[in-house]
Protein backbone atom coordinates (compact mmCIF):
# COMPACT_ATOMS: atom_id res chain seq x y z
CA UNK A 1 0.00 0.00 0.00
CA UNK A 2 1.27 3.43 -0.83
CA UNK A 3 0.86 6.58 1.20
CA UNK A 4 2.79 7.28 4.31
CA UNK A 5 3.66 4.13 6.19
CA UNK A 6 5.58 0.90 6.01
CA UNK A 7 4.08 -2.28 7.38
CA UNK A 8 6.27 -2.12 10.50
CA UNK A 9 5.38 1.54 11.14
CA UNK A 10 1.65 0.78 10.79
CA UNK A 11 1.94 -2.21 13.12
CA UNK A 12 3.68 0.01 15.70
CA UNK A 13 0.93 2.62 15.31
CA UNK A 14 -1.85 0.09 15.82
CA UNK A 15 -0.05 -1.30 18.89
CA UNK A 16 0.36 2.15 20.44
CA UNK A 17 4.14 2.23 19.95
CA UNK A 18 4.32 5.07 17.40
CA UNK A 19 5.84 8.38 18.45
CA UNK A 20 4.34 10.17 15.41
CA UNK A 21 0.82 8.83 14.81
CA UNK A 22 -0.17 11.67 12.49
CA UNK A 23 2.62 10.74 10.10
CA UNK A 24 0.36 7.78 9.23
CA UNK A 25 -3.20 8.75 10.24
CA UNK A 26 -5.53 11.03 8.31
CA UNK A 27 -5.15 11.89 4.62
CA UNK A 28 -1.90 11.14 2.77
CA UNK A 29 -1.04 11.09 -0.93
CA UNK A 30 -1.47 7.72 -2.63
CA UNK A 31 0.35 6.79 -5.81
CA UNK A 32 1.11 9.95 -7.86
CA UNK A 33 -2.01 11.26 -9.57
CA UNK A 34 -4.35 8.68 -8.06
CA UNK A 35 -5.69 10.55 -5.04
CA UNK A 36 -5.07 9.93 -1.40
CA UNK A 37 -5.45 7.45 1.44
CA UNK A 38 -7.30 8.21 4.63
CA UNK A 39 -6.20 6.07 7.59
CA UNK A 40 -8.25 5.90 10.77
CA UNK A 41 -7.48 4.30 14.14
CA UNK A 42 -10.75 3.41 15.88
CA UNK A 43 -10.02 0.14 17.73
CA UNK A 44 -13.55 -0.27 19.12
CA UNK A 45 -15.27 0.36 15.77
CA UNK A 46 -17.00 -2.33 13.76
CA UNK A 47 -16.78 -0.29 10.55
CA UNK A 48 -15.72 3.11 9.19
CA UNK A 49 -16.84 5.00 6.10
CA UNK A 50 -15.45 8.23 4.69
CA UNK A 51 -18.22 10.71 3.83
CA UNK A 52 -17.60 13.28 1.11
CA UNK A 53 -20.19 16.05 1.72
CA UNK A 54 -19.57 17.84 -1.59
CA UNK A 55 -20.60 14.80 -3.66
CA UNK A 56 -22.63 12.82 -1.12
CA UNK A 57 -20.36 9.81 -1.65
CA UNK A 58 -19.70 7.22 1.06
CA UNK A 59 -16.45 5.30 0.73
CA UNK A 60 -15.96 2.17 2.84
CA UNK A 61 -12.71 1.99 4.79
CA UNK A 62 -11.95 -1.70 5.32
CA UNK A 63 -9.93 -2.75 8.35
CA UNK A 64 -6.42 -3.81 7.36
CA UNK A 65 -4.22 -6.47 8.93
CA UNK A 66 -2.91 -3.91 11.45
CA UNK A 67 -6.41 -2.98 12.67
CA UNK A 68 -6.42 0.40 10.90
CA UNK A 69 -9.28 1.45 8.64
CA UNK A 70 -8.10 2.74 5.24
CA UNK A 71 -10.06 4.33 2.40
CA UNK A 72 -8.78 5.29 -1.04
CA UNK A 73 -10.19 8.59 -2.28
CA UNK A 74 -9.68 9.62 -5.91
CA UNK A 75 -7.87 12.79 -6.89
CA UNK A 76 -11.07 14.53 -8.04
CA UNK A 77 -12.71 14.39 -4.59
CA UNK A 78 -12.99 17.45 -2.39
CA UNK A 79 -10.52 17.35 0.52
CA UNK A 80 -13.43 17.98 2.91
CA UNK A 81 -14.52 14.71 4.53
CA UNK A 82 -16.17 13.27 7.64
CA UNK A 83 -16.00 9.84 9.22
CA UNK A 84 -19.03 7.63 9.84
CA UNK A 85 -17.97 5.21 12.57
CA UNK A 86 -20.16 2.28 13.61
CA UNK A 87 -19.56 0.85 17.07
CA UNK A 88 -21.20 -2.25 18.57
CA UNK A 89 -24.82 -1.80 19.41
CA UNK A 90 -25.00 -0.48 16.64
CA UNK A 91 -24.04 3.02 17.69
CA UNK A 92 -23.19 5.30 14.76
CA UNK A 93 -21.22 8.54 15.09
CA UNK A 94 -20.47 11.01 12.30
CA UNK A 95 -17.41 13.08 13.17
CA UNK A 96 -14.64 15.21 11.81
CA UNK A 97 -11.35 13.38 11.58
CA UNK A 98 -9.23 14.57 14.52
Summarize the structure.
By secondary structure, this protein is mostly beta strands.
Mean pLDDT: 84
Walk across the major sheet and give the strand order: 4-3-6-7
- Helix content percent band: under 10%
**What's the tally of helices?**
1
The biggest sheet amounts to:
4 strands, antiparallel
The secondary structure category is mainly beta
List keywords for this structure.
mainly beta, 8% helix, 36% strand, single chain, 98 residues
Could you outline the blueprint of secondary structure elements for this entry?
Elements: H1 7-14, E1 26-29, E2 36-40, E3 47-52, E4 57-60, E5 69-73, E6 82-87, E7 91-95
Antiparallel strand pairs: 1-2, 2-5, 3-4, 3-6, 6-7
Give a description of the structure:
The chain is mainly β and 98 residues long. The chain is 8% helix and 36% strand. The chain has 1 helix and 7 strands, in the order αβββββββ. Strands 4-3-6-7 form a 4-stranded antiparallel beta sheet, with no helix packed on it. It has a 3-stranded antiparallel beta sheet with strand order 1-2-5, with no helix packed on it. A hairpin with a 3-residue loop joins strand 6 and strand 7. The chain starts with 6 loop residues before the first helix and ends with a strand. 23% of the residues are buried. The mean pLDDT is 84.
Amino acid sequence: MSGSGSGAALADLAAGRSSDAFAHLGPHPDLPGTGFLIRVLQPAAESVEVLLPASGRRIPAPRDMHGLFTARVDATASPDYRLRVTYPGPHVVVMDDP
